[in-house]
Amino acid sequence: MYRSAENEIVEEVENQVHPPTSITLKINGTETRLHVAPWTSLLDALREYLDLTGTKKGCDHGQCGACTVLVNGKRINSCLTLAVMKEGTDITTIEGLAQGEALHPLQKAFIEHDAFQCGYCTPGQICSAVGLMNEGKAKTRDDVRELMSGNICRCGAYTNIVDAIEEVMHTQPAPCHE
Amino acid sequence: MNSFSYSRARDVAAAVDEVALPERQAKFIAGGTNLLDLMKENVMHPRHLVDITHLELNTIEDTLEGGLRLGALVTNADTAYHEQVDTRYPLLSKAILAGASPQLRNMATNGGNLMQRTRCYYFYDTATPCNKREPGTGCSAIRGFNRIHAILGTSEHCIATHPSDMCVALAALEAKVHVRGPHGDRAIPFADFHRLPGDTPELDNNLQPDELITAIELPPQGFADHHSYLKLRDRTSYAFALVSVAAALELDGDTIREARLALGGVAHKPWRDPEAEALLIGKSATRESFQLAAEKILQGAKGFPYNEFKIELARRAIVRAFEQALTNEK
Ligand SMILES: Cc1cc2nc3c(=O)[nH]c(=O)nc-3n(C[C@H](O)[C@H](O)[C@H](O)COP(=O)(O)OP(=O)(O)OC[C@H]3O[C@@H](n4cnc5c(N)ncnc54)[C@H](O)[C@@H]3O)c2cc1C
Ligand code: SF4
Ligand code: FES
Ligand code: FES
Questions:
Q1: Which among B36, B53, B116, B231 is the top mutation candidate for probing chain A, defined by the most A β-carbons within 10 Å of its own β-carbon?
Q2: Where in this chain does the record put each FAD-binding PCMH-type domain (chain B) (predicted)?
Q3: Which residues is B51 bridged to in the sheet?
Q4: pLDDT tens sequence across B46-81
Q5: Exposure check for chain B: N or C terminus, fewer CB within 10 A?
Q6: Topology at the third CATH level for domain B227-327
């Protein structure tokens, strides 16, 4: 890759200073071991190392919510966290919500309410909605709108997204599984 | 993002030791929501990150004085929804919940919130001059698009604002910031924590690079009965403030016994003016009194071509916030 001897040395030194770290994450119920560089975001670890491409990269800057996953049941933006920092945590992505062939109630509701068009924001919307239900702070439709504001939908499916969440919220008031 | 090495600090002393070696160019990382964003933009490029998320600074406890001590590593979400914070310091809860998104608040920590950097577009854009990012290169905002910039306490070197909502409430509540450095502990009154840009805009605050924030202390007085956090922005949620107001009153019937007023989105630090607050003491809680305080705190405000509107916006927001505080309406 590098022609000059100097550059080769630099590369070697870099590799010694920053060896890939071995971490264990529990992803969708399975203990998973992977080797990542310190600067690998959790989002990139999921998508590029584990082929869990359901979680989407929209902005990569915490502004859109497409990368939302649940860490120990709490929703976060996986683009703004380092994989190494999540060592030992329990992570749920959109791929982990269904029980076999049975969709998660929120997945079902999103289909029934036509809560998406292109679908790019949808995994993040659904994981965020699971987090919202775990938090238990949303009571009204306005609360849902405010507490889902971290998820942007380019297609503008907002009305139906709120309909879907409201329905599940009112039929399943207890926190649903992570 | 540049490459860097990473370590996880065992305890507070180790964290301070690990960040102290200057040749390491190390930074603490907590929630990561500001630092990683800026590293991806190549605005910040530490060579080493010290992960402090495992430190036991993650509790909220009563203080002997009757206040509350918020651990630096408690998330913004856990702080805002904490039963004691919500009932005794609702101004703080509301300010936190007015900021960012639920996902970000689940990651963002109390210490990190104080340390977040400006959202000035030129600060983020490494292709443009910026005295805060690269001292001595000039300020692109002064003659550029300065709609989101400051109207108070600016200098010819920088007109950036501090973007935090939480800090506006902490300023009004007169919190204290507890820090640990190589030479021990010290407490910084909130008013002295953040700095004005002056001729050193590269310094946002008075924390030393090798000091760690350990806690934020709230005094007993929480103004739970009469407070308001009013945030005005370009959309109703998930946007930074153009102007925000933390207003709090202690009333004796209709007479104001104590008043607090802090502004966000208008300066390099949460903006307070003790004289504006003093004007309200002993007055009756009327629109006219609030207008006087608004005039006073905005005395000396100076607009730039695209943000002149903020002066009138702030004036009206202050009056509105105090009126809301009277009834605690949202
Ligand atoms: C899209 C978006 C929208 C946002 N909107 C808002 C908003 O409307 N209002 C608002 O107030 N904020 C908003 N934020 C900012 C957010 O609140 C901050 O990014 C967050 O509070 C930073 O905390 P953190 O723990 O993630 O910090 P980090 O990113 O981990 O750290 C930030 C800085 O603080 C330093 N640091 C962290 N902890 C300590 C400590 N204990 N002692 C010493 N130094 C420390 C780090 O070294 C780093 O330099 C927004 C952010 C994003 C990405
Ligand atoms: S206002 Fe401050 S942060 Fe923005 S360009 Fe000028 S010097 Fe940089
Ligand atoms: S990709 Fe993470 S918030 Fe947009
Ligand atoms: S469905 Fe297309 S972005 Fe939301």
A1: B36
A2: 1-223
A3: B8, B29
A4: 999 999 999 999 999 999 999 999 999 999 999 999
A5: C
A6: Enolase-like; domain 1 (3.30.390)
